[in-house]
Amino acid sequence: MKLIKRILKWTLYFLLIPIVYISVSLILTAITIDRKTDHQVADKIIYLSTNGVHLDIVIHKNDIDSLLLSGIQRGPSDNYLSFGWGDENFYINTPTWADLTFSNACKAIFLKSPTAMHVTRYKSIRADWVEIKISETELDKLNNYVSNTFRTNGAGTKIILEHPGYSSKDDFYKAKGNYSFFKTCNSWVNLGFRESGLKCCLWTPFDFGLMNKYEHRFVNNTHSPFWLRLLAKPKKNWLYALGLLVVISLQTIIYHLPLNLSFMAQEIALSDVYEELYLGLVFLWVGIGFAITATAFAIRAYGHSLKNR
Question: Closest Cα partner for 202 from 291, 299, 294?
């Protein structure tokens, strides 16, 4: 029995990390930092694009400053360029969720590895892009942010990687910085919006986080994994929150309440007190993770209710 409890305890510890990470991420994603008004006309247009994994910033070539445009391979018919940042190995080997492997994910998150800029060329606007109107000043700040992420050689030239892109229309370049739990490809885009004074999330590792700030609904991308598409249905957010509250209630009734009654009745042997308290603490933190996640769903549901009034 003690062996089973130990196995259960360490299993819960292992599960606690992603539960807390996702819960906190959803809450920070739901918090909006509003656009800083600069009293200028928003007569420039940029776009957000996602392949279900990586979020990109798309800019027309006429709105890209010369410093950023310098050293980027392109043709005369390439009118739009998209920019994304991420772990070099993960970026190259994970173009979609279907290509995700446990090894690539662990290397990106836990190892200090080089990063890359991904630049894709387009002839025209795509239907799945999200249009965002910004001012000249905001555009300049965004250009500087993207340009400063490229790693350059001694001559100040961007360094293109030998590895081919996903197609004939994209390339990878050396980039500055390191990838981690807290600095992902999508949080890089979100930070760029924040530093440019644009509306953004407080922080988000998800592509749908920032996309949702500029749409009245979540982006329902068919390339996204099933659990992300579930999050993309705002009408079900109340049900998700309610479901998690039911789980928390059942956990309390089935585990915490009997444990407390056993302590009050002094039915637990002194030699087992420490282990029972330890396991109870683990279950408590799991319940807190569920509660945080339920709160995030409720916040999203309430936000959509206000928009639809």
Answer: 299
Task: Answer yes or no: is pLDDT of 245 > 90.
Answer: no
C-alpha closest to that of 276 among 13, 9, 68, 56: 9
Name residue 57's beta-bridge partners.
48, 83
- Closest by Cα among 4, 13, 22 to 240: 22
Angle at 94 between CA 77 and CA 48, to 5 degrees: 50
Angle at 82 between CA 200 and CA 198, to 5 degrees: 20
Evaluate whether 46 touches 81 at the Cβ level (below 8 Å).
Answer: no
Distance separating alpha carbons of residues 120 and 164, to the nearest angstrom: 12
- pLDDT tens-digit map of 70-90: 999 999 999 999 999 999 988
Q: Average pLDDT of the chain? A: 82
Separation between Cα atoms, residue 291 and residue 113, nearest integer Å: 34
- Least Cα distance to 220 among 228, 118, 54, 127 occurs for 228
Scanning the structure block, which residue is given the tokens 């308290």? 277
The token pair that represents 5 in the structure block: 């409890």
The answer to whether the beta carbons of residues 206 and 150 sit under 8 Å apart is no
What pTM was computed for the model? Answer: 0.73
